[in-house]
Structure to design on (478 residues):
């Protein structure tokens, strides 16, 4: 059958129209990201009064090829990597007790400064502890009845005084979008080989199932309080024998507990979607710990990812190696105890940039609020500071330098953001870059040198020139 010229013309015109429509839509989607002329600049530094200071807009200029004349950060918008889960700190007992000491106005100030997505640091991912840790005012559990295998006496009543009220206020400030994960420091003494929560010891085999049931009881008790638990770690620092709450698991023991008890118990209880994480200790042997668990398919099926800390050495390559070997598993930084000085701020930023560039999907520091004595803390050892402090003698609430360095990430890199390719031609300048769900781009640049330096950021044949203060951190948003 022949097609008339009129019908053929209409068909071709229609086809052309469809092609033009797809071309228009495609270019609309890409132009939203690439159609930029200027970036907003935020700076924090010790050398001036800059504390997440808004330095306004700086224009891009045409530049086809970056050169070696200046430190240059180079961005590729088209190459994306991991997706961000969030940033935040820890709801320890110490933080909650100090929060209760604040005046109502100070409490509002603290909540806004930490959790408000517009006026504050916008925390969206936070850790808490399953019963007590070293930063509690006392040692306690949710079931002190020896031999209570059925956990008939389990209760989170202890948390109602301080911790639950703080978490509920934070949840409200985020519109319920706060992800909370929990970590145990030790099982109750009656479940352990040494009969105490301190000084390491191990979980007795006859209580493997009871301890797995304890996790379920905890998650469901918090759910009943209106606090959803997003994730769990199996054990905080499982190779550390401490003078505070601690419990030792070898890699094989952690694998077997997850495979045979905790994983199946969570799944059977309807909690199989929780983000279960192994290790939760330093970067040094994290690959070996991950390899033992992930090479066992029966154990690996229950594990979302590997949690880690930064206390002993950098070992950033180990973070990347875990991803490269097991790309379907996630990486989450879960604890950074820190002081309140400028040096700590720089160190936090350096670690965050390196971890994020090595596939980490989120970063949480330790105590959110401490007093002038770095307390309360029931155990021995070295007490750390906090990014926010309350002086209980004067009543003054202070935001320390690490609060601002951390905010350069948490304020501008949103949940759901994807890391994009970001490289540097200078050892003194390190950076990371992300494209947010709304297509804005956030680039965080740290000047590691002791001098003010001119730098460039190059992207899509355009360059932005700026000045970075010594040990200063800059976030560019465009």
């Amino acid at each position: 059958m022949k097609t008339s010229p009129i019908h053929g013309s209409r068909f071709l015109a229609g086809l052309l129209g469809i092609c033009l429509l797809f071309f228009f839509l495609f270019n609309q989607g890409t132009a939203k990201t690439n159609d930029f002329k200027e970036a907003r600049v935020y700076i924090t530094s010790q050398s001036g009064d800059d504390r997440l200071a808004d330095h306004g807009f700086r224009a891009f200029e045409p530049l086809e090829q970056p050169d070696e004349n200046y430190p240059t950060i180079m961005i590729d918008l088209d190459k994306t990597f991991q997706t961000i889960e969030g940033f935040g700190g820890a709801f320890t007992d110490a933080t909650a007790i100090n929060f209760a000491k604040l005046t109502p106005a100070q409490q509002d100030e603290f909540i806004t400064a930490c959790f408000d997505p517009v006026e504050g640091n916008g925390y969206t991912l936070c850790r808490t502890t399953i019963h007590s840790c070293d930063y509690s005012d006392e040692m306690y559990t949710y079931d002190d009845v020896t031999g209570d295998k059925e956990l008939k006496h389990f209760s989170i009543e202890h948390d109602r005084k301080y911790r639950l009220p703080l978490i509920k206020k934070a949840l409200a400030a985020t519109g319920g979008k706060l992800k909370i994960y929990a970590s145990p420091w030790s099982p109750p003494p009656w479940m352990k080989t040494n009969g105490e929560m301190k000084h390491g010891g191990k979980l007795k085999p006859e209580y493997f199932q009871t301890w797995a049931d304890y996790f379920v009881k905890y998650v469901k008790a918090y759910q009943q309080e209106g606090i959803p638990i997003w994730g769990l770690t199996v054990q905080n620092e499982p190779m550390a024998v401490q003078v505070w709450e601690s419990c030792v698991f070898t890699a094989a023991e952690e694998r077997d507990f997850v495979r045979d008890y905790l994983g199946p118990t969570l799944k059977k209880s309807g909690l199989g979607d929780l983000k279960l994480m192994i290790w939760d200790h330093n970067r040094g042997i994290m690959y070996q710990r991950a390899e033992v668990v992930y090479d066992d398919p029966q154990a690996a099926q229950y594990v979302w990812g590997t949690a880690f800390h930064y206390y002993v050495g950098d070992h950033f390559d180990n973070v990347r190696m875990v991803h490269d070997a097991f790309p379907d598993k996630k990486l989450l930084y879960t604890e950074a105890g820190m002081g309140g000085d400028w040096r700590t701020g720089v160190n936090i930023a350096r670690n965050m940039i390196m971890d994020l560039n090595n596939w980490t999907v989120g970063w949480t520091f330790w105590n959110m609020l401490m007093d002038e004595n770095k307390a309360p803390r029931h155990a021995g050892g070295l007490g750390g500071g906090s990014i926010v402090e309350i002086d209980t003698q004067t009543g003054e609430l202070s935001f320390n330098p690490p609060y601002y360095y951390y905010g350069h990430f948490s304020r501008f890199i949103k949940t759901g953001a994807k890391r994009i390719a970001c490289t540097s031609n200078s050892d003194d300048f390190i950076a990371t870059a992300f494209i947010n769900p709304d297509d804005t781009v956030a680039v965080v640049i740290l000047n590691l040198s002791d001098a003010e330096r001119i730098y460039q950021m190059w992207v899509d044949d355009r360059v932005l020139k700026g000045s970075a203060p010594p040990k200063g951190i800059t976030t560019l948003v465009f």
About this structure: Residues 37-82+419-477 form a domain with the Immunoglobulin-like fold (CATH 2.60.40.1180). Residues 5-34 form the longest helix (30 residues). The radius of gyration is 25 Å. The longest strand covers residues 72-83.
